[in-house]
From TrEMBL:
<feature type="region of interest" description="Disordered">
    <location>
        <begin position="387"/>
        <end position="413"/>
    </location>
</feature>
<comment type="similarity">
    <text>Belongs to the RecF family.</text>
</comment>
<keyword id="KW-0227">DNA damage</keyword>
<keyword id="KW-0742">SOS response</keyword>
<dbReference type="InterPro" id="IPR018078">
    <property type="entry name" value="DNA-binding_RecF_CS"/>
</dbReference>
<keyword id="KW-0963">Cytoplasm</keyword>
<dbReference type="InterPro" id="IPR001238">
    <property type="entry name" value="DNA-binding_RecF"/>
</dbReference>
<keyword id="KW-0547">Nucleotide-binding</keyword>
<dbReference type="InterPro" id="IPR003395">
    <property type="entry name" value="RecF/RecN/SMC_N"/>
</dbReference>
<dbReference type="Pfam" id="PF02463">
    <property type="entry name" value="SMC_N"/>
</dbReference>
<feature type="domain" description="RecF/RecN/SMC N-terminal">
    <location>
        <begin position="3"/>
        <end position="363"/>
    </location>
</feature>
<comment type="function">
    <text>The RecF protein is involved in DNA metabolism; it is required for DNA replication and normal SOS inducibility. RecF binds preferentially to single-stranded, linear DNA. It also seems to bind ATP.</text>
</comment>
<protein>
    <recommendedName>
        <fullName>DNA replication and repair protein RecF</fullName>
    </recommendedName>
</protein>
<keyword id="KW-0238">DNA-binding</keyword>
<keyword id="KW-0235">DNA replication</keyword>
<keyword id="KW-0067">ATP-binding</keyword>
<dbReference type="InterPro" id="IPR042174">
    <property type="entry name" value="RecF_2"/>
</dbReference>
Length: 413
């Protein structure tokens, strides 16, 4: 799939923006701070319902405004749709597809993308939360219903933690907390599905990571990934946990097996949880272990190796989406990546993404980007599109009587 046209209203530094996009590579060039990343960030939002730069939506709304609008004309095979989202500074967001209201969490059904930015170095060197988020964003694009499962798990986790905190404050013990068992059942039901889905995805990613690392780095190293489950004793956020384990490499985690392990872990940690007022096991405390030649990449990989590993993870995600998504190729977004790479890695990365249906690149310096990715170049200056150096696709005409913002959806999340 690809984006034919992007329109923004009050998004980041753009009061208004209209830009035509081509199939194949599209290069946005401009000095730092001009708004290049804001354009690709808007497209990424349609796929992941979040920003790769900030944790909350409020920062996406232009200063002094109440809402931002992202509107994109998407094309897949012979089908064209108009996807829109209104991002509100306060209150629930709203979304439309072909002018019909939908829940915002349904947007990934219509748009898939994989974005790589300098911040993604934290996938290798940073905290487990970033690696969990990476898996969950991919899951949401491959199987959009998982967005609901993840949201249900988060709500249940908050309720259970509230109960545990209350029990700690009042000195209640497990025997008098019958309500806790009810929340345990809900937590296990949602959590087991997440654990199994992440395990399946990690196993699908693994061979692509190995291949992509060799492609990007230009040399053969054994780059591997595996899941780390807190319900089986591996908790990177708990110094008292046992060594990280998932099971044997040939043993996929089923929903039933995850549920049994989760329930058993909750029983074992009940006293600790009451003492601390916190849920200590579950998918919210899991991790993904990245290894290079048998050693953890975090702590052992050099800067260049860490960059190659982070790129390999994103390229592996794109390969899985290409294979499993009904939308075909995801949009590949490379945000200010080439400035961080040497010339050989630039050429190898360009070759790795060249056959995707659409690739969006941002760069401060035109010469940093291999020539094969600069066929359609758009120049950006101070939140304004000042130059399009190739033939563009015509912008979509607005629907008759269309309002500038999506219609309200009272059930939207």
């Amino acid at each position: 799939m690809h984006v034919d046209h992007l329109q923004l209203t009050d998004f980041r530094n753009y009061r208004e923006a209209d830009v035509d996009l081509a199939r194949g590579p599209n290069l946005f060039v401009g000095r730092n701070g001009q708004g290049k990343t804001n354009l690709v960030e808007a497209i990424g939002y349609l796929s992941t319902l979040g920003s790769h730069r900030v944790p909350t939506d409020a920062a996406l709304v232009r200063q002094g405004c109440d809402a931002a609008i992202v509107r994109a004309r998407l094309a897949h095979e012979d089908r064209s749709i108009l996807a829109e989202v209104q991002i509100n500074r306060t209150g629930s967001n709203r979304a439309q597809v072909n002018r019909a209201a939908i829940k915002p969490r349904e947007l990934p059904r219509y748009c898939t993308s994989v974005l790589f930015a300098p911040e993604d170095l934290a996938l290798v060197r940073g905290e487990p939360s970033g690696r969990r988020r990476m898996l969950d964003e991919l899951l949401g694009q491959i199987a959009p219903r998982m967005q609901g499962v993840l949201a249900d798990y988060d709500r249940t986790l908050k309720q259970r933690n509230t109960l545990l905190k209350s029990a700690r404050a009042t000195g209640a013990r497990s025997g008098s907390l019958a309500t806790l068992d009810v929340w345990d059942d809900r937590l296990v039901a949602f959590g087991a599905e997440i654990i199994a889905a992440r395990d399946h995805l990690t196993r699908r990613l693994a061979p692509f990571v190995t291949e992509a690392y060799a492609t990007v780095a230009g040399e053969r190293h054994e780059a591997t990934i595996s899941g780390v489950l807190s319900v089986r004793g591996g908790d990177p956020e708990d110094a008292a946990a046992t060594d990280p384990v998932l099971g044997t490499p040939d043993e996929p985690v089923t929903v039933a097996a995850a549920a049994d392990a989760f329930r058993g872990a909750l029983e074992r940690r009940r006293r600790d949880e009451l003492d601390r007022g916190l849920t200590l096991v579950g998918p919210h405390r899991d991790d993904v272990l990245f290894q290079l030649n048998g050693l953890p990449a975090r702590g052992y990989a050099s800067h260049g190796e860490s960059w190659s590993f982070a790129l390999a993870i994103k390229l592996a995600g794109a390969a899985v989406l290409r294979a499993e998504s009904t939308l075909g190729d995801p949009i590949i977004i490379l945000d200010d990546v080439f400035a961080e790479l040497d010339e050989s890695r630039r050429e190898r990365l360009a070759g790795a993404v060249a056959d995707y249906e659409q690739v969006l690149i941002t760069a401060a310096v035109f010469g940093d980007v291999p020539e094969q990715l600069a066929a359609h170049t758009v120049r950006i200056e101070a939140g304004t599109i000042v130059g399009d150096e190739s033939e563009s696709v015509p912008a979509p005409a607005p629907a008759p009587g269309a309002s500038p913002a999506p219609a309200a959806d009272p059930d939207a999340a």
